[in-house]
C-alpha cells in the first residue's frame, strides 16, 4: 500500500489478512481508506461484505451486494458470497438461488471458469448437506462448462465426499500427474481428496478402521497449510477442509477427543472460516464428538448451538434431519 496507494490488490490483501486475524475494525478501516482513494476495484466490496458478515452487520452486507449489482467481475462474487451466508443458516433454497445467479452473472461476463467455480461451491455445499445426487449433477455441469485445473480440484473433492470414490481417485491421480511440483495441490488438496475417499464406502466400514486411520495419516501432509486459503478461491474465507475431513475420520474411529479438537478449530478461527457453511456444520461435528466421548451435557449444548444457527433452516436438509434424530436419542 505504501508503494502503490492507488492499487486495489494491496488493500484487498490487507483486509483479508486483518479479517483472518479477527482484527475487524482494522479491516474495515482499510476498506474506508481504499474508498477515500476512490478505488473502484469490485473485489474491495467483496472483501467488505465478508468483514461485515463477521461483524454481524447485515445492513452493510446488503449495501455491498447492492453496490456491486450489474458490475462485471464483482456482482458474481457478491452473489456467491450471499449464497454462502444463506447456507450458513441452513437456507438451502435461497443459497441455491444466489449460486444460480452468481453463475449466470459470471457467464454473462464470459468468465466460464469463474462461473464453474461458483457452481462447484454449490456442489460442495450439497455434498456436505447430504444431497449426493444434487452434488453429482452440479459437479458434472461445472466440468462441462470449464474442465480446468481448479474446477477439477473441487469436483474431485465433491465426488469424494459423496462416495464416488473411483472417479474422485482417478481425478486426483491425474491432477498429481499433471502438477507434480505444485505445493497447493500436493500439500493441501490431494491429501484432502484422498482422505475423503478413505472415509467413504468400503474403506470407512472396515472393522480394522483402515480407511479412517489412513485418512488421518494422509492429512498429515496438510498440517502446515490447513488454516490457509489456497486456490481455487470459492469462499470469502477458508474452507478448512483438512480439519473437517480429519474430524470426520476421528468420528469413524470413535476418538471423540481428537474429533472435537478438529471441529473446535472452526470456532477458534472464525475470522478464517467466515461464512463458509462448514463453520456451521462444525458445531454438529463437535456435538457428535462429545457424544462419542460420553459427555452428554456438552453434546446437548453443541447440538443446540447448531440448531440455533439453523433455527429457520429448510426442514428437508438431510444433515439437519440426521442431527435431530441423533439429539432425540441422547440420554
Short account of what is shown:
With 331 residues, the protein is an all-alpha fold. The protein has helices at 8-20, 24-36, 42-54, 58-68, 75-88, 92-108, 112-129, 132-145, 149-161, 165-178, 183-198, 201-205, 210-218, 241-252, 256-268, 270-273, 278-293, 296-309, 318-329. It has 19 helices and no strands.
Main β-sheet description: none
In the predicted model, the low-confidence regions spanning at least 5 consecutive residues are none
Name the CATH class of the largest domain: Mainly Alpha
> Care to count the β-strands?
0
Mean pLDDT, nearest integer?
Answer: 94
SS-based class? mainly alpha
Number of helices: 19
Oligomer: single chain
CATH topology descriptor of the largest domain: Serine Threonine Protein Phosphatase 5, Tetratricopeptide repeat
Description of the molecule:
The chain is mainly alpha-helical. It folds into two domains: 1-68; 69-329, Serine Threonine Protein Phosphatase 5, Tetratricopeptide repeat (Alpha Horseshoe). The chain has 19 helices and no strands. It has helices at residues 8-20, 24-36, 42-54, 58-68, 75-88, 92-108, 112-129, 132-145, 149-161, 165-178, 183-198, 201-205, 210-218, 241-252, 256-268, 270-273, 278-293, 296-309, 318-329. α13 (210-218) packs antiparallel against α14. The longest helix has 18 residues, at 112-129. The chain starts with 7 loop residues before the first helix and ends with a helix. The relative contact order is 0.09. The mean pLDDT is 94.
Amino acid at each position: 500500500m505504501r508503494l502503490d496507494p492507488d492499487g486495489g490488490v494491496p488493500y484487498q490483501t490487507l483486509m483479508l489478512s486483518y479479517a483472518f486475524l479477527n482484527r475487524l475494525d482494522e479491516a474495515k478501516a482499510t476498506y474506508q481508506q481504499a474508498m477515500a482513494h476512490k478505488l473502484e476495484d469490485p473485489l474491495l466490496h467483496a472483501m467488505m461484505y465478508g468483514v461485515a458478515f463477521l461483524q454481524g452487520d447485515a445492513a452493510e452486507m446488503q449495501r455491498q451486494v447492492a453496490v456491486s449489482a450489474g458490475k462485471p467481475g464483482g456482482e458474481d462474487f457478491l452473489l456467491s458470497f450471499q449464497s454462502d451466508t444463506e447456507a450458513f443458516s441452513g437456507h438451502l433454497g435461497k443459497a441455491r438461488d444466489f449460486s444460480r445467479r452468481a453463475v449466470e452473472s459470471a457467464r454473462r461476463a464470459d468468465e466460464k471458469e469463474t462461473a464453474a467455480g461458483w457452481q462447484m461451491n454449490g456442489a460442495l455445499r450439497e455434498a456436505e448437506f447430504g444431497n449426493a445426487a444434487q452434488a453429482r449433477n452440479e459437479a458434472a455441469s461445472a466440468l462441462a462448462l470449464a474442465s480446468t485445473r481448479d474446477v477439477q480440484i473441487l469436483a474431485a473433492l465433491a465426488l469424494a465426499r459423496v462416495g464416488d470414490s473411483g472417479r474422485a481417485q482417478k481425478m486426483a491421480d491425474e491432477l498429481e500427474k499433471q502438477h507434480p511440483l505444485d505445493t497447493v495441490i500436493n500439500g493441501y488438496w490431494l491429501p484432502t481428496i484422498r482422505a475423503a475417499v478413505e472415509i467413504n464406502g468400503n474403506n470407512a466400514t472396515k472393522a480394522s478402521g483402515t480407511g479412517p486411520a489412513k485418512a488421518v495419516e494422509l492429512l498429515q501432509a496438510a498440517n502446515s497449510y490447513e488454516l490457509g486459503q489456497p486456490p481455487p478461491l470459492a469462499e470469502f474465507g477458508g474452507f478448512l477442509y483438512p480439519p473437517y475431513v480429519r474430524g470426520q475420520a476421528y468420528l469413524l474411529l470413535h476418538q471423540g477427543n481428537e474429533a472435537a479438537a478438529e471441529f473446535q478449530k472452526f470456532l477458534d478461527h472464525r475470522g478464517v472460516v467466515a461464512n463458509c457453511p462448514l463453520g456451521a456444520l462444525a458445531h454438529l461435528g463437535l456435538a457428535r464428538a462429545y457424544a462419542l466421548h460420553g459427555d452428554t451435557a456438552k453434546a446437548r449444548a453443541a447440538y443446540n448451538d447448531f440448531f440455533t444457527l439453523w433455527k429457520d433452516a429448510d426442514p428437508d436438509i438431510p444433515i439437519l434431519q440426521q442431527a435431530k434424530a441423533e439429539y432425540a436419542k441422547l440420554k
